[in-house]
Write a structure and sequence with these properties.
single chain, about 600 residues, Rossmann fold, ATP binding, ABC transporter ATP-binding protein, AAA+_ATPase, binds adenosine-5'-triphosphate, ABC transporter transmembrane region fold, membrane, alpha/beta, six-stranded mixed sheet
């Protein structure tokens, strides 16, 4: 099972990008160190140049440049400040570059983890998934987590260093005032945590609103033809609009309160800074702190605002990350297909294999037993048929044969090897399951046939010919490059089935299962098609699931399934003579 995502994993992913992490930390700190002396430089000139108390800065500049004129000292100081700022600008740009790389990598890794998990999700879980909701989670929630990563790598170290640096300078200037100010910082952070928790709840509601909206819109568009044919567009779109309103409400609520939270922290820090500014004036009046130093102190006090704000913002963003992680984990909790190790390959170096179900039972999640102690055998190269009334369990047999669902009891074997020793990918590579309703991409005929694999035109046409679709494809203006529309909407039911059969031929399987795959064709066309496929199916074990007895005449052996059990079995003639099946009977 995929491990759930956690903040620990988040940190590991950040620290795992060593080069980028140290580069962003280095450049962030370098930029901070360059900015740190700036608030001091110009105020020092007040004391040393205006108030006539020559000090270290003017002494250094005069001896270095051999000129102690006031205009010169001011000019050099301004140039020095500009150079420091320019240096910080260059380093900050470098820092952003590496921070963006880290952030985007975290997004990618998170999406990779979700997609990798979904790729192997078991079918019973897949049935419950709403694709719109999944899309919303892989986009919005991943963005939520990565924006915290972005805020963290770009501001945590530089803001902390700035805070420590400013604190050190202030302590040096006036330790009483500095200590008073610094003691307040933990309270600021605690305040931000409370605000973050409150906005986190609102953000959760906003995420949910987007998720439901995406689900509704997605499903309505997927089933648009059905919706329109039932004249239900108004109702469906009204539901989507309601949800759109909920997004508006939730977003206003979150957006407004998140802005209030940000401003509250700004208001708090600014008020505290104003109080300390006033205290600074009092300190100058009652101590030996110079006017220049007091101005420098006030500049540092203002400069303190930025790292404190950034750290408070980080705390709020951290709280908002939790709902995003929870929702991502809801996807990672979906159960996955069983992993069978690939120990034996019964399909290797053989034309086809036998297929056996020994005493197999099965129940879907939350439902009663659908298959009960089924025994079926298709010998190597044999053509068997499964018939039976609707809901008797025929398609379920087909699906457990390719491991789409896990059988509960008994054994399923290919050439005597249980599927647990073959591995699901190997089975699906060699056993083709053709459904009544094949699914198609809104792409060209070629893409739908080859599924983007390199296959020569000659082979494609051979398959089309066998599937009795070549004449139709050749009659199209763009031939193989013709687009077939959403899920093949531009094709008739029969054309779609023939396209699926051509795809099946190209995939060259060793065992073929037709699950009502030709039911959309009329008796005559179906008969012709099986005749054409005779050569293709001759060397392959074939299982045909059908309602119509006409479809199964060609089978070597027939099983009648009723209520999940084998009710009768034998050749067509045997079953016919026993009265189990009748000519042209439709069991559906
Ligand atoms: N994914 C599922 N989850 C739960 N129950 C299911 C699922 N698929 C099928 N069933 C149930 O299992 C039973 C057997 O269904 P199955 O599709 O295998 O029948 P069938 O013989 O192929 O029917 P038909 O000829 O109509 O296609 C039915 O009662 C059906 O409701």
């Amino acid at each position: 099972m995929t491990k759930l995502y956690s903040l620990k994993r988040f940190w590991q992913q950040i620290l795992g990008q060593k080069k980028e992490f140290w580069a962003t930390t280095f450049y962030g700190m370098a930029a901070t160190l360059l900015l740190l002396p700036i608030p001091m430089l110009i105020p020092l000139l007040i004391d040393e140049v205006l108030l006539g108390h020559p000090g270290k800065l003017t002494a250094f500049l005069s001896t270095t440049f051999g000129n102690s004129e006031t205009w010169f000292l001011v000019l050099v100081t301004v140039i020095l400040v500009a150079i420091l700022r320019m240096g910080a600008f260059v380093f900050s740009n470098q820092q952003s570059f590496y921070a963006i790389k880290i952030t985007q990598r975290i997004s990618y890794l998170l999406r990779h983890r979700i997609l990798h998990h979904l790729e192997r999700v078991c079918l019973s879980e897949y049935e419950t998934l709403k694709s719109g909701g999944v899309v919303s989670k892989t986009i919005q929630d991943v963005t939520g987590v990565s924006s915290f990563a972005s805020a963290f790598v770009s501001s945590f170290f530089s803001s902390t260093l700035m805070l420590i640096g400013i604190a050190a300078v202030m302590l040096w200037m006036n330790w009483v005032l500095a200590l008073l100010i610094l003691f307040l910082n933990p309270f600021f952070l605690a305040f931000s945590k409370v605000l973050g928790k409150k906005t986190g709840e609102l953000l959760r509601r906003q995420y949910k609103a987007y998720e439901v909206y995406n689900e509704l819109l997605n499903e309505t568009l997927e089933l648009f033809i059905q919706v329109r044919a039932s004249n239900q567009e108004k109702n469906f779109f009204a539901l989507i609009l309601d949800q759109s309103k909920e997004i508006e409400n939730a977003s206003i609520d979150y957006g407004h309160k998140a802005a209030v939270a940000q401003r509250s922290s700004g208001l708090l820090t600014n008020t505290v800074i104003d109080i300390f500014r006033a205290l600074g004036v009092v300190v100058v009046a009652y101590s030996d702190l110079s006017v220049g130093m007091m101005i420098a102190f006030l500049f540092y006090l203002s400069a303190l605002n930025s790292p404190v704000q950034q750290l408070m913002g980080l705390m709020i963003s951290y709280q908002n990350t939790k709902p995003a992680i929870e929702r991502i984990n809801a996807l990672l909790k979906l159960k996955q297909e069983p992993h069978y190790p690939h120990e034996k390959n019964p399909f290797e170096n053989v034309l086809t294999t036998s297929v056996t179900l020994k005493d197999v039972s099965f129940a879907y999640q939350y439902s009663n037993e659908v298959l009960s102690h089924i025994n079926i055998e298709a010998k190597s190269g044999q053509k068997i048929a499964l018939i039976g009334p609707s809901g008797s369990g025929k398609s379920t047999i087909a699906q457990i044969l390719v491991g789409l669902y896990r059988h509960k009891g008994g054994e399923i074997c290919y050439n005597g090897v249980p599927i647990e020793q073959i591995g699901l990918p190997v089975i699906r590579e060699n056993v083709a399951l053709m459904l009544q309703e094949s699914l198609f991409f809104n792409e060209t005929i070629r893409m739908n046939l080859t599924l983007s694999k390199e296959i020569s035109d000659e082979k494609i046409h051979e398959a089309l010919r066998a599937a009795k679709l070549e004449t139709f494809v050749l009659s199209l203006e763009n031939g193989l490059e013709s687009r077939i529309g959403k899920n093949g909407i531009r094709l008739s039911g029969g054309q779609k089935q023939r396209l699926a059969i051509a795809r099946l031929i190209l995939s060259n399987p060793k065992v073929v299962i037709f699950d009502e795959a030709t039911s959309a064709l009329d008796n005559e066309t179906e008969h012709q098609l099986y005749e054409t496929l005779e050569q293709f199916l001759k060397e392959r074990t074939t299982i045909i699931i059908a309602h119509r007895t006409t479809t199964i005449k060609q089978a070597d052996y027939i099983y009648l399934i009723e209520e999940g059990r084998v009710k009768a079995e034998g050749s067509y003639e045997e079953l016919f003579s026993r009265g189990v099946i009748k000519e042209d009977m439709d069991l559906g």
